[in-house]
Amino acid sequence: MTKQQQWWKKLLLKLAASIIFYTSIPLPYLKGLDFQGVAHLASLVGLIIGGILGLLDTGMDYIGMPVLTRSALVVSIWIGITGGLHLDGAMDTADGLAVGDPNRRLEVMADSATGAFGAMSAIALVLLKMTALTDMPENRCLLLMAACGWGRWGQQVAIARYPYLKPTGKGAFHKQAIRSYKDLLPGLLLLLGLSGLLVLIDKQQLFLALAMIIAGSAIAILTGAWFNHKLGGHTGDTYGAVVEWTEALFLCVLTTVGS
After folding, report:
1. How far apart are CA 14 and CA 16, in angstroms?
2. Who contacts 241 (Cβ-Cβ below 8 Å, separation ≥6)?
3. pTM (two decimals)
4. Cα of 65 vs its chain's centroid, Å
């Protein structure tokens, strides 16, 4: 096997590990999977998830399904594809932030039981995504891909930029994988390329493409910064919260731009 073939094999195994870790998409058994570096390909996994959702949405549109029903099904499938991984983190984070004593927030977040604030945050996220998608009649596939991609790029920024608060937590190995801002560049280039694809499809969509880049990057960075401000760092739960809130807020902002 040549060096180039070995490189491609290593990349595909790394992508398979990332898909298995971040999604519930069934894959055949593969030997040699290493989950330590899955965070490197988080943005690419996001684009794959968004692409699957976009194709399903296009198929439902083709058979004449109303936009509200389509949007509700897309969000439901969205949760199913991710196994609720990030939504669970957003719920735990909301429960923790609701505690008045900052010293008890991590303890509450570690509790598997969902509190009232966690439930309310989940309802808010689902409603925001569903209503935003309902207000998007065009370019839904690309916007879904962008939302999922920017959400996971925001997670990568949080991993690289802020301290991890639990040395033995479930997301601690992500901190070992992404150590510098150079690790953020591949995901950023992928997302810039996605916006460029929109322009290639329709040059009149240049403003929307620029809005995707500006809104996506800004929301991804600011969401992680806000959680760091509230907690003094990040955990595996807040990484999930960054993904969920970046996706939802990105879609909400893009409804204004699209209109």
Report:
1. 5
2. 86, 89, 90, 93, 94, 223, 227
3. 0.94
4. 26
